[in-house]
Amino acid sequence: MKFNKWTMGLAAVGVVSLASAARADEKMSVVNTALSNTTLSGYVDTSAQWNLGSQNGGETPQYAFGPGKADGFNLDSIDLALDKPLSEGSWAAGYHVELMAGPDSVPGTQVTWSPNTTRGPNVMGAGVSIRQAYIALSTPVGGSAIDWKVGVWDSILGYESTSDPLNPNFTRSYGYTIEPTTFTGILATYKVNDMITLQAGVADASQVAFTVPMINNFYAIGPTPINGRNVQESKKAYMGAIALTAPDNWGWMKGATLNAGIINNDDGPTSGSPANWGTTSLYAGVTVPTPLQALKVGAAFDYLDVHDAHYIGNSDSSVWVAGLYANFQANDKLSLNVRGEHLQVNAFPLAMDEFTATASYKIWDNVLSRVEFRWDHVEHYKAWDNSYYTYEGSTYTNYDVHDNAFMLAANLIYQF
């Protein structure tokens, strides 16, 4: 083995031995080989938000967006990812490690639900969290292969992503807020052909980000921290999904996608903390091109059932959201995105609507720049009036309630 002059000099004075230097050089070669195909990517997400009117003094938890972000400049999140793609060959392996920092990072902590946040937590100074960390494996099956994720990975449900740049709008949808976000377990993906892809997985349970929205009294249901356990460790989350893609011979409909899935978290004890209750999440979403090449439309439906959770004497503890999306790519630089949703919380009952319009324009390389207008509207909410909320005899006073909330935001995301 050939050594450089510096190593030979250290060996001559007895600082190192040539044998140890050889072992160190061999280890470095292995490390260099392992890292040679590893890529670094991520983004930095910042925003400025203006809540029109005087809403910043009394935002309703049910629908006002971004607590602590109103009328100011914000760091939303920092995302760093290391990837080693699946290697060549039938039995391929790789890995993915993704860390998030900032107010919008969620996995690994107790996350509460409310449409008033980007993705869940009411903590504006959250630290670094593990967004994903899994080993990627591939096993040959017939003429195809099953791809595995073993570790911590994103949920298989949803029209929108936890990755900010992948979403058509800056703010999150109501649908996103009632979906599970992260799981710790094993996920299998099998591509039957170019039209059909199947997924199935098992993970630790109690990992649905949902909170019953009551002023000063938020009941959180998961998710558990990484390696956390339910009271009964045998209880797990079981999930499956299917993705259908229209083939090229469908004309202007080619590339249309239909996704559907279910996640069932087994029940824990039905007494005590609501965090022990199980949940069932259902999702269906479709994205369809139109004869107008620049225009795509989409729709999403989310349904969440909280097992055995009967609030205010109501036997129906379900929540559902229906949403419509449209994207118009005006040119290489300008795109317009709109979203409209209806939210129904049957336990109260609570009904809400939101409309969001977002314009994205490419000014700088690698920078996603967009401006957004959002309007949230409460249709009805049991026991509310204009100045206070009464819940089974307890009165919370001096809390302003807004039937309508309006927001303007500017968003810059640097991607690398």
CATH domain class of the largest domain = Mainly Beta
What overall geometry do the principal axes of the alpha carbons give?
globular
Tell me, rounded to a whole number, the average pLDDT. 77
Main β-sheet: number of strands, strand sense, barrel status?
Answer: 16 strands, antiparallel, barrel
Percentage of β-strand residues: over 45%
CATH superfamily of the largest domain: Porin
Q: What is the number of strand segments?
A: 20
Q: H/E order of the elements?
A: HHEEEEEHEEEEEEEEEEEEEEE
Description:
7% of the residues lie in helices and 47% in strands. By secondary structure, it is mostly beta strands. It folds into 2 domains: 1-35; 37-415, Beta Barrel (Porin). It has a 16-stranded antiparallel beta barrel with strand order 1-2-3-4-5-6-7-10-11-12-13-14-15-16-17-20. The longest helix is centred in the first third of the chain and has 18 residues, at 18-35. The protein is globular and about 70 Å long.
Features of the shown structure:
416 residues; mainly beta; Porin; 16-stranded antiparallel β-barrel; two-stranded antiparallel ribbon; 3 helices; 7% helix
Task: Detail the topology: elements first, then pairings.
Blueprint: H1 5-12, H2 18-35, E1 39-51, E2 72-84, E3 93-101, E4 129-141, E5 144-154, H3 174-177, E6 182-191, E7 196-204, E8 210-212, E9 219-221, E10 236-245, E11 257-265, E12 279-289, E13 295-306, E14 318-329, E15 334-345, E16 350-361, E17 367-381, E18 389-391, E19 394-396, E20 404-415
Antiparallel strand pairs: 1-2, 1-20, 2-3, 3-4, 4-5, 5-6, 6-7, 7-10, 8-9, 10-11, 11-12, 12-13, 13-14, 14-15, 15-16, 16-17, 17-20, 18-19
